[in-house]
Design brief:
The protein is an alpha+beta fold and 79 residues long. It has 2 helices and 4 strands. The relative contact order is 0.28. Bound molecules: FE2/S2 (inorganic) cluster. The site of FE2/S2 (inorganic) cluster has 11 residues, from helix 1.
């Protein structure tokens, strides 16, 4: 697959917003018909809990990802 998104599902990131972010990503992929070109997976903890919520897109780790930032990231990083 062309793109890879790893969303931290550790309890800290999950509570800080990745629960919503996960739903947002799924909706985004569906809406843009990207399910086939993006591998979405979860990780347990990226070890940067205090900067969470953390999401890794194509090997690059982004911290403090709120919903607005997330949409911008998806628009710019997903091919
Ligand atoms: S819970 Fe996400 S970095 Fe620890």
């Amino acid at each position: 697959m062309e793109n890879q998104i790893v969303i931290c599902m550790g309890s800290s990131c999950f509570a800080r917003g990745n629960e919503k972010n996960l739903r947002l990503i799924e909706e985004y992929l569906e809406k843009n018909h990207l399910e086939a070109s993006v591998k979405l997976s979860g990780s347990c903890c990226e070890g940067r809990c205090s900067q969470g919520p953390n999401i890794v897109i194509n090997g690059e780790c982004f911290s403090g990802v709120d919903q607005e930032i997330l949409i911008d990231l998806l628009n710019s990083k997903i091919k």
